[in-house]
């Protein structure tokens, strides 16, 4: 039997599906209408204003689900970029996504977005909304493997910030930037364990913290106001002091969305915070474990730098992504659920 496109109206959205550390990534490589804007951040604004229905078609049920994640490949204005990307999730458009960079590094080499791949590693420059991220993709005998990346300058924004969290009282959090802003707090504060507690309890506490920080703390970023928002809250096991043992966390981002991976941008933010507190040194590699799947990314600070007036670090994160399939998504006339819906 020959598989042909079913009856449909409008664009055919072609995707390659992957995952890194259990977190899905739907790479949208064809069919998305061109986005206008001279810069990637302008294209991100255009997507928010004019193409948001297609984000929902791709992320929501019946084609996706509440915790789906995607990457829209777009042109970059940076000469050194091999690929530009916008990240999409259940509530909108993120500024950084480490698990996606780990997957996109492989994708870019496997699908010919970089010329002449080199062994043992091929560098892929990925322009993310937060800036240029350099991925280094293992490549040997025509096969891609693990990926490490150097993210944009990461910094501790504020430590020991007291916020009033309805249902939980006054909670002290740290706020750190790893391409996106996160509030970080030990799960113990809520009587929870990131590896053993029910996910819904972790989501409830983390979401309450996110809402409290959003309403009580003003964030700013030296490069662009487009980057100055709280993306989520990471509950940790509290093991911030360097040891050879992994430290576990769960990241709850966007609209109560749960990252299955250890969160690449969260690892970046955690290391920047640990470095700021003198708990980890440059080149001390640490393992970070997802509390929900047990998957591991590694991270280390590789260089001191600055972001505006903030003392910052360049962080290297490493992990492995895998392919899970390909698909062409369409919308059929008469389908009242075709634009997407979500179940919590
Ligand atoms: O790995 C990361 O950085 C991302 N995973 C989903 C939420 C974050 O964007």
UniProtKB/TrEMBL annotation:
<dbReference type="GO" id="GO:0050346">
    <property type="term" value="F:trans-L-3-hydroxyproline dehydratase activity"/>
</dbReference>
<protein>
    <recommendedName>
        <fullName>trans-L-3-hydroxyproline dehydratase</fullName>
        <ecNumber>4.2.1.77</ecNumber>
    </recommendedName>
</protein>
<dbReference type="Pfam" id="PF05544">
    <property type="entry name" value="Pro_racemase"/>
</dbReference>
<comment type="subunit">
    <text>Homodimer.</text>
</comment>
<dbReference type="InterPro" id="IPR008794">
    <property type="entry name" value="Pro_racemase_fam"/>
</dbReference>
<comment type="similarity">
    <text>Belongs to the proline racemase family.</text>
</comment>
<keyword id="KW-0456">Lyase</keyword>
């Amino acid at each position: 039997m020959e598989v042909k496109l079913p009856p449909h109206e409008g664009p055919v959205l072609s995707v390659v599906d992957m995952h890194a550390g259990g977190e899905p990534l739907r790479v949208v490589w064809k069919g998305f209408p061109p986005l206008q804007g001279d810069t990637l951040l302008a294209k991100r604004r255009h997507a928010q204003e004019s193409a948001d229905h297609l984000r929902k078609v791709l992320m929501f049920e019946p084609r996706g689900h509440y915790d789906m994640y995607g990457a829209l490949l777009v042109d970059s204005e940076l000469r050194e970029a091999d690929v530009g990307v916008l990240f999409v999730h259940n509530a909108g458009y993120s500024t950084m996504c480490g698990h996606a960079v780990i997957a996109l590094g492989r994708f870019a080499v496997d699908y010919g977005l970089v010329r002449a791949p080199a062994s043992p590693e091929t560098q892929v420059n990925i322009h993310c909304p937060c800036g240029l991220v350099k991925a280094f993709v293992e490549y040997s005998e025509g096969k891609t493997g693990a990926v490490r990346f150097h993210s944009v300058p990461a910094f501790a924004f504020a430590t020991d910030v007291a916020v009033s969290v309805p249902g939980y009282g006054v909670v002290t959090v740290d706020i750190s930037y790893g391409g996106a802003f996160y509030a970080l707090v030990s799960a113990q504060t809520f009587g929870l364990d990131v590896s053993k507690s029910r996910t819904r309890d972790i989501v409830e506490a983390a979401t309450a913290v996110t809402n409290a920080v959003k309403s009580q703390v003003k964030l700013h970023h030296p490069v662009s106001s487009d980057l100055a928002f709280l993306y989520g809250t990471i509950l940790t096991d509290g093991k911030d002091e360097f040891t050879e043992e992994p430290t576990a966390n769960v990241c709850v981002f966007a609209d109560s969305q749960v990252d299955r991976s250890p969160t690449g941008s969260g690892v970046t933010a955690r290391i920047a915070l640990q470095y700021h507190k003198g708990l980890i040194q440059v080149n001390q590699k640490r393992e970070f474990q997802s509390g929900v799947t047990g998957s591991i990314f590694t991270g280390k600070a590789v260089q001191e730098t600055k972001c505006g007036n903030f003392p910052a670090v360049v962080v290297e994160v490493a992990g492995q992504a895998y392919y899970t399939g390909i698909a062409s998504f369409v919308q059929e006339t008469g389908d009242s659920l075709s634009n997407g819906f979500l179940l919590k």
